[in-house]
Amino acid sequence: MKLIQKIPQVEELCSKYCISKEEQRKRENLLFEMREILAGKCGKKIIIVGPCSADREDAVIEYVYLLSELQTRVKDTFLLIPRVYTGKPRTRGDGYKGMIHRPKPSSRNDDLVSGIIAVRELHQRIIKEAGMYAADELLYPSLCSYVSDLLVYAAVGARSVEDQEHRLAASGLEIPVGMKNPSSGDISVMLNAVSAAQQSQRILVNGWEAETEGNRYAHAILRGYINIAGENVPNYYYENLMRLHDAYYRQNLRNPSVIIDCNHSNSNKQYMEQCRIAEDVFQSCRRSKSINQLVKGVMIESYLEDGAQLVGEGVYGKSITDPCLGWKRTKSLILNLQDKIA
């Protein structure tokens, strides 16, 4: 192992890229609303929506600004949370690993120090320029402290959900954390992760041994799974949701909640299917009071342009990882969902 460069101190970076007291107050108000939804005290649904990977600041900021305008039109029905994922897990360890590794996607070399700074600055800009507060993936628990004070949501991915460090880190966050089902589809693994995150835990953080309070708003995310034949299998259907409902109550977990990831294995990575899947989920909510109480929202991969491109092709606002819905289709979908729920 070769040491390359020291990373900045958490306090140093947080003080340089900070938000005002008024922006902190707005974040607290938004967190209160999210907690009310997850606790079943508010009938709104959450839509976490945005690029598969936040690859460039300008396009992401433009996207979030458009989302902020749409939020005013659907504020009585939906709480829109921009999906701004700055780290990407890779199955084989190669490929683009997100802004945290490469602030400039076309660069040939990783630069994690510059990446940490770029991620902090991006989330600060989202707050100051678009007035929104984002979701990011909890990919590296050791880096939580560098950005969690600017977020309102974090997700633990299918590859990480069985990892104890991720579960314990989630228990120490003040923001809601979604636990995805693992690639195998075993919902007991996902619910065990939720249970671990909801409990008080002893963890190591920033050179200290610390005790967490437990995250009572940790919850499930269904994203489909891969069977032994290597095929994508969806798990958003009515029957899947009823099984999850029953499993939740058998474990006696706090604030039973699930977010449905409309892409990944649920869509067989066919990004246009996200529209149909979101509509199907809300149809299940209309059919069953139990499902409606359990399902707190959906997650959609969306960017300015439809589809995906290779790194270096240079199409502004088009995903360089998984294909995404373009903005026009996304806006139409959300407005259509509002009409069907209202």
Q: What would you note in describing this structure?
A:
One of its GO terms (biological process) is chorismate biosynthetic process. It comes from Sporofaciens musculi. Keywords: Amino-acid biosynthesis, Aromatic amino acid biosynthesis, Transferase. It is a single chain. With 342 residues, the chain is an alpha/beta fold. The chain has one domain (22-341): TIM Barrel (Alpha-Beta Barrel), CATH 3.20.20.70. Helix content is 39%, strand content 15%. The protein contains ten helices and twelve strands. It has helices at residues 10-16, 21-38, 57-74, 112-130, 164-171, 187-198, 238-251, 273-287, 289-294, 327-341, and strands spanning 45-50, 78-82, 134-137, 151-156, 177-180, 202-205, 208-211, 219-222, 225-226, 232-233, 258-261, 295-301. It has an eight-stranded parallel sheet. A hairpin with a 5-residue loop joins strand 9 (225-226) and strand 10. Helix 3 (57-74) packs parallel to helix 4. The longest helix has 19 residues, at 112-130. The chain is globular, with a radius of gyration of 19 Å. The termini are far apart.
SSE diagram, text form:
Layout: H1 10-16, H2 21-38, E1 45-50, H3 57-74, E2 78-82, H4 112-130, E3 134-137, E4 151-156, H5 164-171, E5 177-180, H6 187-198, E6 202-205, E7 208-211, E8 219-222, E9 225-226, E10 232-233, H7 238-251, E11 258-261, H8 273-287, H9 289-294, E12 295-301, H10 327-341
Parallel strand pairs: 1-2, 1-12, 3-4, 4-5, 5-8, 8-11, 11-12
Antiparallel strand pairs: 6-7, 9-10
Function: Stereospecific condensation of phosphoenolpyruvate (PEP) and D-erythrose-4-phosphate (E4P) giving rise to 3-deoxy-D-arabino-heptulosonate-7-phosphate (DAHP).
Family: Belongs to the class-I DAHP synthase family.
Organism: Sporofaciens musculi
